């Protein structure tokens, strides 16, 4: 899909009433959702005992994520694979989407990363209450012995509230910074091309693009690991 086609689609979306001020990362995130949904639907449409083609890729991705999550969450980790695995793939594709001409990385927007962090934050506490009950979960937050609750409860609350901030800002800053560096190098390469009359623009951004793909994977993995540790901590009652 060429850059001009992406721009045409985005302009068509902005023409819809109520979408005039939509951030470019929003339709890009919709594109990621649709793309992942299509891949999963096609990969599981005709399941075979001996997988091949796209089914093989989907099963390999699922089993790899399930094995990794089980190591992070020994107690019932596999059943969290659909949630955490989807979160990882969604963030990974959004992270690297910006290296494709005409697209932007939705995770280069703080609103997107904060939304993802809030999903993890709410899931963590809902799971904690479900496993320990409301009173039991509050006791875990208050700590032991209860006489220290006036001191420990504020500390635990501040820690819990800092988690979504840490998750969102870390992911946003890394992806935003990489996109800005890539964009700047593209502009510098174009300026050198125009000044020296080269046949082709200098691909100065290529090393950073390769680095962005790698760090996009790393940041998605870090988000997965931290999310798994938060949920596991809520289940076990530790903070």
Explain what you see.
The chain is an all-alpha fold and 239 residues long. It has one domain. It contains 7 helices and no strands. Helix 3 crosses helix 4 and helix 5 packs parallel to helix 7. The model has no long low-confidence stretch (mean pLDDT 81).
What structural category arises from helix and sheet content? mainly alpha
Q: How far is it from the N-terminal to the C-terminal residue, by CA?
A: 47 Å
Number of helices: 7
Instruction: Report mean pLDDT, rounded to a whole number.
Output: 81
- Number of structurally distinct domains: 1
Q: What is the makeup of the main sheet? A: none
Shape: globular
Given as residue ranges, the uncertain stretches (5+ residues, pLDDT < 50) are: none
Number of strands: 0
* Amount of helix: over 70%
SSE series? HHHHHHH
Q: Tell me the fraction of residues in β-strands, as a range.
A: under 5%
Oligomer: single chain
In short:
This protein has 239 residues and is mostly helical.
Record the SSE blueprint.
Layout: H1 3-14, H2 25-43, H3 53-72, H4 81-97, H5 110-142, H6 149-196, H7 206-236
Helix pairs in contact: 2-3, 2-4, 3-4, 4-7, 5-6, 5-7, 6-7
Quick tags:
mainly alpha, globular, 239 residues, 7 helices, 0% strand
